[in-house]
Amino acid sequence: MTILSNLSIDLTDFSGRILIVSDLYGHFELLLKGLSKLTQSGDEVVVITTGNLFDWGPSPCQLLEAVVYKKFGDRKVHFFTVVG
């Protein structure tokens, strides 16, 4: 896993969904449910998060594993988090 700082994302030519969420609190299944309602199988999705991700909630380890290994079911998810 590479941690990048001062990363900018150019989404000018991106035609997929862009989801911005805050404070997931380890709710991996809820994130998957949201992805399935807002996207279709095989879709490419950008997820941008802020706030707490892994330190609370029902399945923080599953969420961490999904982010590190890009395991979001049958969707291609580009996962970014904003630290401020």
From TrEMBL:
<dbReference type="InterPro" id="IPR004843">
    <property type="entry name" value="Calcineurin-like_PHP"/>
</dbReference>
<dbReference type="GO" id="GO:0016787">
    <property type="term" value="F:hydrolase activity"/>
</dbReference>
<dbReference type="Pfam" id="PF00149">
    <property type="entry name" value="Metallophos"/>
</dbReference>
<protein>
    <submittedName>
        <fullName>TrhO</fullName>
    </submittedName>
</protein>
<feature type="domain" description="Calcineurin-like phosphoesterase">
    <location>
        <begin position="17"/>
        <end position="84"/>
    </location>
</feature>
<dbReference type="InterPro" id="IPR029052">
    <property type="entry name" value="Metallo-depent_PP-like"/>
</dbReference>
